[in-house]
Amino acid sequence: MPQIIDISQTLRSGMPTWPGDTEFQTFWVARMENGDPCNVGSVTMSLHTGTHSDAPLHFLREGTSIADTDLSAYIGLAQVIDLIGAKSVEAEHLLAVAHGLPERVLFKTRLSPAERFDPDFACITPDAARILASFGIRLIGIDTPSVDGSRSETFETHKILASAGIAIVENLNLANVTPGTYELIALPLKLAGMDGAPVRAVLRTL
User: Fold this and answer.
1) 4-204 is classed in which CATH architecture?
2) What is the per-residue burial (b if ≥16 Cβ within 10 Å, else e) of 182-200?
3) What is the pLDDT of residues 81-124, one digit of tens each?
4) What is the pTM of this model?
5) Are 11 and 50 spatial neighbours (Cβ–Cβ below 8 Å)?
6) pLDDT digit string, tens, across residues 40-51
């Protein structure tokens, strides 16, 4: 019987956000305990909080918005690759597993999600991004806040992947996932004209 593994971070007040981004907060518009007929909640957040997808529009001026991205990239076979302890995803990591990769690749670089923003998170080098594009990869995912390093000024990896039509999912929670092949389902919210969206990502065992 296939198992479903939730690889999304739980959205919650106080969770780490990119410095300068809108922090995640919840509040109530209506409460039954106050005499309202139902409970109605609301949130404020950056679209890049927790597990989310970056649309090409995030770093390409004429890029596609998240509502217009090809959803087929977000569903299908995915390989989880163990790179725990690596400071970045390098070209040699990919060349070592080049044969037989599915169209979706998820990089596991840590044992648990960060409880605070750590600027030294693992990212994906531009050379590795070019190799992913040459492999025909359609989606890459990583368990850190960004495919580019926190000190990047050019965001070259984002631009390479977006220009190649590769979907990007960041801030996955792969702590309880054994490296291997799964079915990925990671659909972003359909937000018109926006540069990204939250994702509820799951893996299904084969």
Assistant:
1) 3-Layer(bba) Sandwich (3.50)
2) bbbbbebeeeeebbbbbbe
3) 999 999 999 999 998 887 789 999 999 999 988 899 999 999 99
4) 0.96
5) yes
6) 999 999 999 999
Residue labelled with tokens 């990089």: 107
Q: What is the pLDDT of residue 100?
A: 84
Among residues 58, 93, 99, 158, the one annotated as catalytic is 58
- Provide DSSP, the chain: ---EEE-PPPP-TT----TTSPPPEEEEEE-GGGT-SS-EEEEE--TTSSSEEE-GGGT-TTPPPGGGS-GGGGEEEEEEEE-TT-SEE-HHHHHTT-TT--SEEEEE--SS--SS--TT--EE-HHHHHHHHHTT--EEEESSS-SS-TT-SS-HHHHHHHHTT-EEEES---TT--SEEEEEEEEEP--TT-SEEEEEEEEE--
d(CA 78, CA 31): 42
Please tell me the predicted confidence (pLDDT) of residue 68.
98
58 is catalytic: yes
Residues 6+ apart with CB under 8 A from 10: 50
Domain coordinates of the chain in residue numbers? Answer: 4-204
